[in-house]
Amino acid sequence: MNNKLSNDLPALPPPYPYLISAMDQYYSGTDSYSEYPVIKSKPILFYKNSSKKLRILITTFWNYPFVGGLQNYIKSLKKGLEKLGHHVDVIAPNQFSKSETSILRKKIAHYYKQYFINRYGSFSDKILKNLCDLVLYEMMLRKINLNQYDIFHAQDRFTANVLGRLNQNYQKPLLFTPHGFMTHTRLKFNLIKKGSIEEVYFSAVDRQAIKNSNHSIILSHVFRPILNSLGAADEKMTTVYTGIEFAGNKIKKENYYQNDKIIITCVSRLRPRKGHKYLFEALSYIKSQLNNVEVRIVGDGEMKNELETQVQELQLDNVYFLGSRNDIAELLNDSDIFVLPTTSDTVPISIIEAMFAQQAILTTDCGGIPEIIQDQYSGIIVEPANSEELAEKLLLLVTDWTLREKLAENAKNVAEKNLTAINMSKKIERIYLSLISQEEKG
Q1: Domains 17-244+422-441 and 262-419 in one fold
Q2: N or C: which end of the chain has fewer CB within 10 A?
Q3: What digits encode the pLDDT tens for the residues 190-229?
């Protein structure tokens, strides 16, 4: 694939008129949408693929491959669809020349910074950066023959906006899978200020992602009310739980003796919303009763130094930071209890991995977690940010071997029945084929 981009940047009108319109309304109360009509080209006739073996384009606004849940999702979906006989390409920003995109980014940023100053008298750094990224991604895709694909599947709201713009020419089925709660979550955690121009801009991005999409594939039911509020109809949303391939092979411990070490594992990015500080507070409440327990913290992130300091201050000598690892299956197979004290999440892949690894799972009532973990059956669920409750349930799991075994076995059975990569891929394949059938009939 030749992704070479020209260094010459023509004078560009705002490519996303609905974003400019939203900002115009914020600053002056005037809807300017008609000033920047979306130019529609003659639609390219839809290719009727009689073999039903599809060419699928998956897009992501984030680097791929990369460490994290999104990469694991895309990797599992791609591999599963390919096993079903389809061709799958993934396009991400880091697949293009750094030197060429660096030059273009500077030119685009200069152009839009001046545009915002001339129009509004100021500019937002967050909006300028995002608009530059949108334009750059669009320019990348314009160098590719997108007509070769039967299906477009955006894995975020931003590439759903870009594909929607380009899809005016191609008229292909476009699907959208949000992996986070978008502006809704950023407002909740004060990453965007309520009533700000950033809220207006990014909310417009959210709404257009829904508008551009023929169908939304959501990771859990918890997305439904959020997407409803953005204009998504219930009949245009399908919940498909994340499926993975897990390489582990749990070696069951038949008996526990007084001196056997119990291993607790937490696999997650070291970020504020993952709740590590509440886990460490919980451990400090019961540390005198954890003489035979080792706690392994797997992952890296911006909270590393702060969390290491907290562990030292609480004198938690049994807590070990292992950093980023590529042997998660092996670590989980050596573990007894999996803890994820998250305060905001969708459906974390780390929990699904722990289910396959036959772990006794302790986690929180966040996002779609209760949809895959049934409290007291396939795991234990506690209130987010409640260190006391977390400590109580953690001590229960440490001291009750029978309960651990029951929860772990049930979790694995649920995962093997519902959360495999091939199961996920087959469900998504049916949605693809249904949309193509509708196009052919139309």
Answers
A1: yes
A2: C
A3: 889 999 999 999 999 999 999 999 999 999 999 999 999 9
Separation of CA 92 from chain center: 14
The ranges assigned to domains in the chain are: 17-244+422-441, 262-419
Distance, C-alpha 233 to centroid of its chain: 22
**Domain 262-419 of CATH type 3.40.50.2000:** yes
Instruction: Give first-to-last CA distance, the chain, whole Å.
Output: 32
Residue 439: C-alpha distances to residues 168, 170, 436 (Å): 15, 12, 5
CA distances in angstroms from 119 to 19, 26, 355, 408, listed in the order given: 13, 12, 53, 59
d(CA 156, CA 177): 6
The continuous run of DSSP H or E covering 382 comes out as strand 380-382
Is the separation of the CB atoms in 343 and 275 below 8 Å? yes
Task: For residue 39, give both structure tokens.
Answer: 């130019």
The answer to whether 301 and 269 are in contact (CB under 8 A) is yes
Class of domain 17-244+422-441: alpha beta
Sign of CA dihedral 371, 376, 378, 383: positive
Instruction: Give the single-character DSSP code of 358.
Output: T
Whole-Å CA distances, 239 to 216, 243, 427: 9, 12, 10
Neighbour-count burial of 166, counting CB atoms closer than 10 A to its CB (0-12 exposed, 13-18 middle, 19+ buried): middle
Residue with tokens 């300028």: 128
Q: Report how far residue 362's alpha carbon sits from residue 339's, in angstroms, rounded to the nearest whole number.
A: 5
**Which amino acid, 354?**
A
> 């551009």: which residue's tokens?
212
Can you tell me the distance from the alpha carbon of 118 to that of 164, in angstroms, rounded to the nearest whole number?
28
Phi and psi for 297 in degrees, rounded to 5? -105, 110
Q: How many helices (H) and strands (E) does the chain have?
A: 16, 12
- Position 397, amino acid: L
* Structure-token match 């909270």, residue found: 303
The whole-angstrom separation of Cα 324 and Cα 249 is: 21
pLDDT tens-digit series, residues 301-319:
999 999 999 999 999 999 9
Nearest to 264 by CA among 117, 395, 439: 395
- If you count them, how many residues does the chain have? 442
The answer to whether 226 and 184 are in contact (CB under 8 A) is yes
321 near 304, Cβ under 8 Å? yes
pLDDT band, very low/low/confident/very high, at 100 (cuts 50, 70, 90): confident
Residue carrying the six token digits 């979790």: 411
**Is 224 within 8 Å of 333 (Cβ atoms)?**
no
